[in-house]
Every structure is written in structure tokens, then in C-alpha cells.
Structure to design on (614 residues):
């Protein structure tokens, strides 16, 4: 490990190249006929398939784990996973995330447990899509989607609020606020033991 | 009836209409060639090129023109205002004027009037084209000078030096054509090629002309005047809006103009390809226009192909090539051609002609092998000096290594 800090003694690999006696450059210019091959290369290329993607009309799927816009996820019964801990905001190197947590109250339960994220903003003018927030999130509330079309005309529009970031309500989910699944605590939620909503929690969205 | 006599009979309205037709054809060709160039170069780089505006992006150049017209027209404070405005005008008019003497068709029926699509036929037509092309250089030089800025000045100087040196080679390459055709009139040169194109008979002249026409039009790989990496935009760095559009236009009109001249002088002008002579009567002779433009567009494709393939030359290499290769070679070639011409006119016996050709070939081989030998000797001498340890400090590289790098 200490060697890494020592100055390199091998002249950027020149000494090694010398040992192998490999010529670095060829000073002879190629024969005229050889140089003409270049014309054939460009001519041939004209009939090759074009590499360009006609973007707005044709959209190629991104890489599977492409870092796109964020999403705030929900538990299977519709409660939000975000507990307002602000770890994502602290992890953010670009200071793009603003979180304000608040207490879940009787009759206004947004997430399992004591706290929920009351205000959740991501400023996409600052975000560098490094994904450190996702690594920091203790409840997997924050993940990234593959969506990359994030251009807009004003700065204000590029600060995404909690409503913009929350994942959609799927079938069987009850829109919060609503009480937790009967006879469970936040630990059950965390371990994924709550797999559906209960009729006592409210009317589930059916699809 | 010769072309000159036919044109002499034109009433005024025919001349005016022909002028308009030629101008419109030039502008249309220019606009389309900008599009075509961008598309072709794109294909050579596996891109698709402009394809948004209109079918296949055909209207791209038109829309670019509109965009340029709507831009702010800036004149720098340090600029010489009159010359600054005049320069693009000179450049553009000059290259349009070259088309006046190019015969576009054979004899056709033009609204009931027998004529040829050629505005005028002067006995020194090709000299006129060369002169007009040189006037066009004034546009570039003056633009560079009047901008009151360093890079445009350098670009303007470069391009004037370039165009002047390549015009010498170009003019010399045309001399052989004059000798064979016995005329400087474009229509008579075309008429003289009804059996064999001069591109075949005078192949070396054709090659020299093709090379120097690329140098003359400031096109890649000889586009040193607007070397973006070195001189920003070259002579038109300070130009914007329509004035810039004029330079842009003149560059492309110029390409078409030198291609048209090459077609006229070397590829038989409006005549059909060999073996397809019957097509010249189609559409009452108007089909010859298609032949003319097919040949011109062929040249245009070569221009684009060169741009897509070759990197830009270094300035000194470029000048060296013009003065030390092209000009001496064309001088020698002219001497050979004129000797042969005189021999055939004096009905010299075939043996003498063959002996002459062989002796020329012998001299050529002797000279090239001598030059080669000298090159080898020079390389040897260079090796000897290099094997001595360099007398300057070499940082950490072993001396043997330095020797290898130095060759």
C-alpha cells in the first residue's frame, strides 16, 4: 500500500516498453495505395446501418439500473415507507434533498411507526443522480426509476414535491392517512409481514 | 451554327430569362448541395444527418437560411465598415458570374427560340472564369482584413496565399486543354470533346485540376482558411446574419462553379456518357441539362467524399505540395503535351512519336530514382547524427530509448 505514494520509477512504462523492444511508432508513411483504402472505408460506411436513435419518436430502454428520477415507495397497504429521518438529505453531496419530518397522530397516520415525512423535496437542478440517498435510506422508501426526461422551463418546476415523487397507489392499497394493519407494529411492516390492506383501514383502491 | 452565333441571335428577353434561369439553378443547387453534403457526410460517419425539416430534411438549408436572416447583424467597432459590408458581396457575385460562360445544354428550343443554355460565349471564356475566381479571393482577403481582428486576418491571408498558389497550378493544368482544343471558348472545348473526353487524353491535367480546384475552393482537406481548431472561423469569424450567409452561399456556389468548369473542360460538358449519345436528342435537347448536372453532382460527391475521408493538411505541407509538386509537374506535362501536339500537327512519323514518349518515360524514371536515392542517403545521414548521445539533458529516458524515438 505504501508503494502507491512512492514516485513511479518506470517512466510511464517506457522502460518496460524498451525491455520488450516493441517499436512505439512507425515513422514510415504508408504507401499511396494503402492510403487510398481510407476512401473505401468512408464509401463502405455510407451503406451501413445508421447508428442514430431518432430520439423523441424512438426511445431506447435505459440500462436496467439507470439512475433516473426518484420515487417514494409505499407499503402494500398504501402507507408511505418514508419515516422522515432525513438520512437521504444528509447523505446528499449536492444538497438537493429537503425533508421535514412530523409525528403520525391518531387519525392522521401516514407511515407505520411514529414519524413520517411531511415535506419532501428534491431539487433536480442540484441532483447529480449519484444514488447515495438510496443507499442511505433505512426503509427502502427512496429508490430511483429509469425516467430521464427531466427538462422543464422554470426552476420552480424542477423542485419536485412529495406528491410528484410518491409512487402510485396500486390495487389493494388504501390512500393514507389511515391506521396501521390491525395487531401489527412498524417492525412487522419493516420485515415485510404486511402484504395487503385490511378492511378496517379504509376502502382499498381496486383496479 | 456555332454556339456563339446562336447566342448572338438571342433577343433581349431570352437573355434575361436565361440569366434568371442560371441564377435560380445555382441557388437551388447550392441549397440542395448543403443538404446533400450534410446527409452524405453523416452517412459516412454512420449518422443520419438532418432529417427533421421536410421530407428527409430537404428543407434544412432553407430553414438555416431563414435562421441566419433573423440573427443580429453585428459589425465590430474596429471593422472598416464599407469594406466589411462589401466583402461578402464581392465574394458572392464573383462566383455567380463564373456561370455565365458555362454551356449547360446543347441546342434547345427555348420558348420557340433556338438557342443554347449559355448566357454568353466569349472567345476567352475559360480565362474569364479564372479571372472571376481570382476576384472572388478579394472577398475573402478583404473580409479578413476589414474585420479588424487577428484570427480573420490570419485566415484571410492564408486563404489568399492558398488560392493564389493553387490558381497557378490550375491555370497550368488548363493549358494542355487549350493546346488540344485550339480554343479558350468553353463551347468549343466541349465541341472538341465529342470523341474523347480530355479527362482521358489529358489524364494528368485532369488530376492536377481536380486537386487544385479543391485547394481553390478552400475545401477539406485544404480548408486551412477556416481551420476551426486554429483560427476560430477563419476570415468570416466576425461575420453574422446575412453577411455570413453570403459567404456560406459563395462557398457552395464556388464548389458548383469549379465542378461545372471541370465538367466542361474534362468530362465533355453537356454531352452524354459514351455510348448514350442518342439521349442527347430527348426532350428536344433538354436532356443534355440532366447529363451536365449528373457530372457536376459527381464532382460534388467527390468534394464531400474528400471531406469525409481526409484530415486537414498542415499549412507548410500544403504550400510545399502546391509549389514543389503540382506546379513543376504541370510545367513538365505541358512541355510534353505541346511537343506531342506539334509532332502530330506536322505529321511526324509514328516512330519519332513513340521514341519521344519512351524518352520522356525514361527521363521521368531516371529523375524519380535519383530523388529516391537521395532520400535514402538523407535518411542514412539522419540516422548517423541521431546515434550520437543527445547533447541536451534527457529526463530519465535511457539514451538508447531516445535514439529509438528519434528514429
Amino acid at each position: 500500500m505504501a508503494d502507491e505514494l512512492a514516485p513511479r520509477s518506470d517512466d510511464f512504462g517506457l522502460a518496460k516498453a524498451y525491455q520488450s523492444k516493441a517499436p512505439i511508432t512507425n515513422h514510415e508513411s504508408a504507401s499511396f495505395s494503402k492510403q487510398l483504402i481510407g476512401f473505401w472505408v468512408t464509401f463502405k460506411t455510407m451503406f451501413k446501418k445508421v447508428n442514430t436513435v431518432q430520439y423523441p419518436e424512438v426511445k431506447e430502454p435505459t440500462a436496467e439500473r439507470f439512475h433516473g428520477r426518484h420515487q417514494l415507495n409505499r407499503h402494500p397497504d398504501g402507507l408511505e415507507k418514508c419515516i422522515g429521518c432525513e438520512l437521504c438529505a444528509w447523505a446528499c453531496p449536492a444538497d438537493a434533498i429537503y425533508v421535514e419530518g412530523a409525528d403520525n397522530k391518531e387519525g392522521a397516520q401516514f407511515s407505520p411507526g411514529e414519524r413520517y415525512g411531511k415535506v419532501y423535496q428534491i431539487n433536480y437542478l442540484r441532483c447529480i443522480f449519484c444514488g447515495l440517498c438510496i443507499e442511505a435510506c433505512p426503509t427502502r422508501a427512496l429508490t430511483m426509476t429509469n425516467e430521464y426526461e427531466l427538462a422543464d422551463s422554470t426552476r420552480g418546476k424542477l423542485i419536485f414535491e412529495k406528491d410528484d415523487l410518491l409512487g402510485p397507489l396500486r390495487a389493494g392499497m388504501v390512500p393514507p392517512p389511515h391506521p396501521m394493519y390491525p395487531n401489527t407494529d412498524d417492525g412487522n411492516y419493516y420485515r415485510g409481514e404486511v402484504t395487503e390492506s385490511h378492511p378496517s383501514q379504509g376502502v382499498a383502491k381496486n383496479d | 451554327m456555332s454556339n456563339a452565333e446562336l447566342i448572338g441571335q438571342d433577343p433581349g428577353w431570352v437573355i434575361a430569362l436565361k440569366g434568371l434561369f442560371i441564377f435560380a439553378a445555382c441557388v437551388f443547387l447550392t441549397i440542395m448541395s448543403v443538404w446533400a453534403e450534410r446527409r452524405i457526410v453523416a452517412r459516412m460517419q454512420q449518422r443520419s444527418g438532418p432529417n427533421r425539416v421536410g421530407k428527409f430534411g430537404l428543407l434544412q438549408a432553407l430553414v438555416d437560411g431563414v435562421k441566419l436572416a433573423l440573427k443580429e447583424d453585428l459589425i465590430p467597432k474596429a471593422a472598416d465598415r464599407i469594406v466589411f459590408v462589401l466583402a461578402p458581396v464581392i465574394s458572392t457575385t464573383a462566383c455567380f458570374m463564373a456561370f455565365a460562360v458555362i454551356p449547360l445544354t446543347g441546342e434547345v428550343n427555348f420558348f420557340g427560340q433556338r438557342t443554347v443554355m449559355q448566357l454568353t460565349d466569349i472567345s476567352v471564356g475559360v480565362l474569364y472564369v479564372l479571372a472571376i475566381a481570382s476576384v472572388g479571393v478579394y472577398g475573402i482577403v478583404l473580409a479578413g482584413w476589414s474585420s479588424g481582428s487577428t484570427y480573420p486576418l490570419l485566415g484571410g491571408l492564408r486563404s489568399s496565399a492558398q488560392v493564389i498558389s493553387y490558381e497557378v497550378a490550375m491555370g497550368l493544368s488548363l493549358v494542355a486543354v487549350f493546346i488540344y482544343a485550339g480554343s479558350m471558348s468553353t463551347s468549343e472545348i466541349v465541341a472538341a470533346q465529342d470523341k474523347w473526353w480530355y479527362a482521358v487524353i489529358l489524364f494528368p491535367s485532369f488530376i492536377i485540376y481536380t486537386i487544385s480546384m479543391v485547394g481553390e475552393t478552400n475545401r477539406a482537406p485544404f480548408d486551412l482558411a477556416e481551420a476551426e481548431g486554429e483560427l476560430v472561423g477563419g476570415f468570416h469569424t466576425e461575420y453574422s446574419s446575412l453577411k455570413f450567409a453570403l459567404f456560406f452561399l459563395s462557398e457552395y456556389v464556388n464548389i458548383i462553379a469549379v465542378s461545372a468548369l471541370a465538367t466542361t473542360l474534362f468530362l465533355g460538358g453537356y454531352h452524354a456518357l459514351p455510348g448514350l449519345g442518342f439521349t442527347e436528342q430527348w426532350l428536344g435537347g433538354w436532356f443534355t441539362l440532366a447529363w451536365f448536372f449528373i457530372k457536376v453532382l459527381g464532382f460534388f460527391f467527390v468534394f464531400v467524399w474528400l471531406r469525409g475521408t481526409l484530415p486537414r493538411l498542415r499549412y507548410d505541407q500544403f504550400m510545399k505540395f502546391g509549389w514543389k509538386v503540382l506546379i513543376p509537374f504541370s510545367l513538365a506535362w505541358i512541355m510534353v503535351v505541346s511537343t506531342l501536339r506539334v509532332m502530330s500537327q506536322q505529321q511526324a512519323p509514328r516512330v519519332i512519336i513513340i521514341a519521344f514518349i519512351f524518352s520522356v518515360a525514361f527521363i521521368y524514371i531516371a529523375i524519380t530514382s535519383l530523388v529516391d536515392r537521395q532520400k535514402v542517403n538523407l535518411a542514412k545521414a539522419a540516422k548517423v547524427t541521431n546515434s550520437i548521445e543527445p547533447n541536451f539533458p534527457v529526463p530519465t529516458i535511457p539514451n538508447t530509448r531516445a535514439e529509438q524515438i528519434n528514429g
Notes: The helical segments of chain A are 14-20, 32-35, 37-45, 87-91, 132-136, 162-165, 186-190. The two ends of chain A are 59 Å apart (CA to CA). Strands of chain A lie at 70-72, 97-103, 115-123, 142-144, 159-160. Chain A is about 20% helix and 10% strand.
